[in-house]
Amino acid sequence: MLRLPAVLRQIRPVSRALAPHLTQAYAKDVKFGADARALMLQGVDLLADAVAITMGPKGRTVIIEQSWGSPKVTKDGVTVAKSIDLKDKYKNIGAKLVQDVANNTNEEAGNGTTTATVLARSIAKEGFEKISKGANPVEIRRGVMLAVDAVIAELKKQSKPVTTPEEIAQVATISANGDKEIGNIISDAMKKVGIKGVITVKDGKTLNDELEIIESMKFDRGYISPYFINTSKGQKCEFQDAYVLLSEKKISSVQSIVPTLEIANAHHKPLVIIAEDVDGEALSILVLNRLKVGLQVVAVKAPGFGDNRKNQLKDMAIATGGAVFGEEGLTLNLEDVQPHDLGKVGEVIVTKDDAMLLKGKGDKAQIEKRIQEIIEQLDITISEYEKEKLSERLAKLSDGVAVLKVGGTSDVEVNEKKDRVTDALNATRAAVEEGIVLGGGCALLCCIPALDSITPANEDQKTGIEIIKRTLKIPAMTIAKNAGVEGSLIIEKIMQCSSEVGYDAMLGDFVNMVEKGIIDPTKFVRTFCETQPQSSHVHVLLSSKQPFGIVIPSSTSLPSVVLGSNENLLEPLPTIRTGRTPGIRRCALWNQSDSPRHSKPSLEQPAATTGLVHTPRGDAPFERWEAARVPRSRRGKLCHRRARQPGPRMNGKFNLARSARAANDAAGSGGGQPGPLLPAPSHPPGCGGGAAATADSTPGSRAPPSLPGPSAPRPPSGSQCADPPGPAARIPGLRPPRSLRK
């Protein structure tokens, strides 16, 4: 029976001992001044070095270990930056600040993250160095902003518009690290779906890259039953000038589908049913009419799930001029369907995998209104998944969707190529939007002379302008370094040449960058120039003077707790784990004072209960105490009473603390006097407890007594050992459990 007062008496001291440790678990570590900046800069350098090696046509790839699957091989800067998580918490803070800059650039422009990362490292390093020497950080930042404004104005002067497919292909090729095949396929996709058309990138099933144009309402759902096939060529169902029934609900009953079949049959029109599902009697009647009567009908499951399914059905209804049955807020029932409730399309093609509705006969004004609604949702949506789905819906209502299927010999190759295709696609869109400038870092080098015309208000502002001057050389130097040449010499030659001459890292020669097609989108260059000083993290770092501090959570761990006597509460607390098997009660204890995983097992509180058998396990991670449960039929009344002598039991578990105190009292330990939890009894020579006679029994000793085990010889009758069974003596007639017998 559970004794609540006893439980409360045990929990109260444990709670008092645990309270200070809970406070320590939420402690923080704080660092100030130069030490904090130095640790953060180490993290910035580690991340920037990993990202910088991917820059340029001869940049290296980075292999990223993943928690599942094969390692990821990529040259995408933002992918490398996101994958870095340093073990040192102070260094990791610096790395996270640069990750924020790369993410902001990627979200706004879609590319340019590698250049943004190396620029952020340069600004932070130069700025920290000047601030540590006593410069005013606020004035330095003002000088940086003056220089950035001048650079952006100069970039807009250099920008040239992109109009021809050849220029689009050049931009895509450069962004794909010189892969002309990717550049050409992106140019073809934009030519077919328009500059603002939707272009998606997916894994291909062949070794080559492929371009697929999806026109009008195409979705990845096929016919429910192959009995709807009406042509032997291609195993598909084709209709001309068909009716479309749209339903959000499942169609199962015959009564709900018969009115629609009668309308289609009366007007001699094929019928396409798009619903959540069609099964039961409804599917049977459709198949029967298709086979026996020759009715032209096909049933298709609606695409998507949840709200996305509802939105797509609504788009289909607007594009075809019909209505959605079962829609919330409308009282349309399938039994009350009228001809004007059905959508109308000029052509329908349904295969086992997908369906296509062509030449929808919806109202043009309603379609345009729906397109504007989707565009407004795109502008306010933050989720990338929602943006992708909205873009697909927008394309299906307008010009269609272009799908770039990336091929390769392995998953690793396909994933690496997909990253480059995505970057090239974003670069192409940005180039069409704002134009192009010289690539290879030459556009930033051409902006350096424009900084000489700025008049700073003080020396600290001049220092900020000089920081930007040195930073603008970093991208070209990094590209040259990755190509295996000295960056400073390359920059000197570029500065001496004309405005359109730069260094071709692939050929290792100085060429006309425009003629060779080495160009960058103006939006990319402008974005990562604006992102550096305006980023919230970089702004705070450049605007903060001594003292500078970092606060991180402390790595304090809570101790383990044992419910037992009160005398050990100020010591490192061990852990009790209890288990139960048929015929045996067992309790495992181990000490966690030094190392909870690697410390040697140490018994803190031996169980002093009659009938317990101590079975050491050598190097096992715990010491086991096993209590035998003996059937009443195998012992007498006196034996049974003493077998239950160990003391109170709580919910099937022995209360070790009370049992130990009861054993001490029975052995005459002096009541509340300190002493061993279970004193070893003395035995005369020749008794089976000889091992216990040699055990250390000094006060305060915690070594467990050597209790007689299953192999101990039975003492002869009449000897001094034949006393009534005490706390540490063997009960006559009590046999050990079968698992312990030899």
Overall morphology: globular
State the separation between the terminal residues, measured CA to CA. 35 Å
The number of domains is 4
Binned strand content: 15-25%
Summarize the biggest pleated sheet: 7 strands, mixed
Give the C-alpha Rg.
40 Å
Tally of individual helices: 23
Secondary-structure arrangement, i.e. CATH architecture of the largest domain = Orthogonal Bundle
Task: Write out the CATH superfamily name of the largest domain.
Answer: GroEL-like equatorial domain
> Could you list the spans in which at least 5 consecutive residues all have pLDDT below 50?
544-549, 554-664, 666-734
CATH class of the largest domain, named: Mainly Alpha
Tell me the helix content.
40-55%
Task: Outline the structure in words.
This protein has 23 helices and 26 strands. With 742 residues, the protein is of the alpha+beta class. The chain has 4 domains: 30-160 and 437-552, GROEL, domain 1; 165-215 and 400-434, TCP-1-like chaperonin intermediate domain (GROEL, domain 2, 2-Layer Sandwich), CATH 3.30.260.10; 217-362, 3-Layer(bba) Sandwich (GroEL), CATH 3.50.7.10; 559-742, no CATH class. The strands form 9 sheets. Strands 6, 7, 9, 11, 12, 13 and 14 form a 7-stranded mixed sheet that branches. The protein has a 4-stranded antiparallel sheet with strand order 21-22-24-23, with no helix packed on it. A 3-stranded mixed sheet has the order 4-15-5, sandwiched between helices. Helix 7 packs across helix 14. The radius of gyration is 40 Å and the shape is globular.
